[in-house]
Automatic annotation (TrEMBL):
Species for this entry: Trichinella nativa
Keyword terms: GTP-binding, Hydrolase, Microtubule, Nucleotide-binding
Pfam assignment, any one: Tubulin_C
Catalytic activity, as annotated: GTP + H2O = GDP + phosphate + H(+)
Family annotation (InterPro entries): Alpha_tubulin, Tub_FtsZ_C, Tubulin, Tubulin/FtsZ-like_C, Tubulin/FtsZ_2-layer-sand-dom, Tubulin/FtsZ_GTPase_sf, Tubulin_C
Xref: SMART domains: Tubulin_C
Protein name as annotated: Tubulin-like protein
GO biological-process terms attached to the record: microtubule-based process
Alphabetized SUPFAM superfamilies for the sequence: Tubulin C-terminal domain-like
One of the record's GO molecular function terms: hydrolase activity
Gene Ontology CC annotations of this record: microtubule
Assigned protein family: Belongs to the tubulin family.
Domain Tubulin/FtsZ 2-layer sandwich: 39-184
Keyword GTP-binding: yes
């Protein structure tokens, strides 16, 4: 929603607005199954490259450029520009701040007028940024896909027709902010047993709520542990 308000000047986005952006993301993720490219990515590779542990399997999705037709005339939107935008919180589909977490893996899926040389330069620039941190217990791999088919937009829609776009799937410890926010909202409602009777009436047991809450608390802890540097971990053992 913030992406629409800030980048597309849409004060109150509708489901149609949201679905068109989600459609672009799904299209980018599956583009390599449908079109030719220099570095096509198979869907099974996402799991291989993004998931270090079975429970740490929630990707953060980012898309760029999210830009209106009016603004597109004034923007260059180079490979470096859209790559930098994908590491900014404003372009994320989940509200969290990656600058407060660490990346474990990154998949960059480019579409349109993109060449490997520009991608390598953009990645080199990202690695040199101090605001972007990576875990030290595994090599920082950037999985790259380049598809020649440029993004297609809905005629008369919110998004501008652009020569190139990037969809980034990353595994970052920052996404635990979303779980913490969800847990807090659940705790407030469950303390008053809000809506619980509806679920119990449909056959659920009240204990299932507590089990699910404990599972999310464990998930938060899992993300916290993978974000700890291995050197810190070793020193705490002595």
């Amino acid at each position: 929603l913030n992406s629409f308000s800030r980048n597309l000047d849409i004060g109150r986005p509708s489901y149609r607005n949201l679905n068109r952006l989600i459609g672009q993301i799904v299209s980018s993720i599956t583009a390599s199954l449908r079109f030719e490219g220099a570095l096509n990515v198979d869907l099974t590779e996402f799991q291989t490259n993004l998931v270090p542990y079975p429970r740490i399997h929630f990707p953060l999705v980012t898309y760029a450029p999210v830009i209106s037709v009016e603004k597109a005339y004034h923007e260059q939107l180079s490979v470096a520009d859209i790559t930098n935008q994908c590491f900014e919180p404003a372009n994320q589909m989940v509200k969290c701040d990656p600058r407060h977490g660490k990346y474990m893996a990154v998949c960059l899926l480019y579409r349109g007028d993109v060449v490997p040389k520009d991608v390598n330069a953009a990645i080199g620039n990202i690695k040199n940024k101090r605001s972007i941190q990576f875990v030290d217990w595994c090599p920082t791999g950037f999985k790259v896909g380049i598809n020649y088919q440029p993004p297609t937009v809905v005629p008369g829609g919110d998004l501008a027709k652009v020569p190139r776009a990037l969809c980034m799937l990353s595994n970052t410890t920052a996404i635990s902010e979303a779980w913490a926010r969800l847990d807090h909202k659940f705790d407030l409602m469950y303390a008053k047993r809000a809506f619980v009777h509806w679920y119990v009436g449909e056959g659920m047991e009240e204990g299932e709520f507590s089990e699910a809450r404990e599972d999310l608390a464990a998930l938060e802890k899992d993300y916290e542990e993978v974000g700890i540097d291995s050197l810190d971990d070793e020193s705490s053992e002595y």
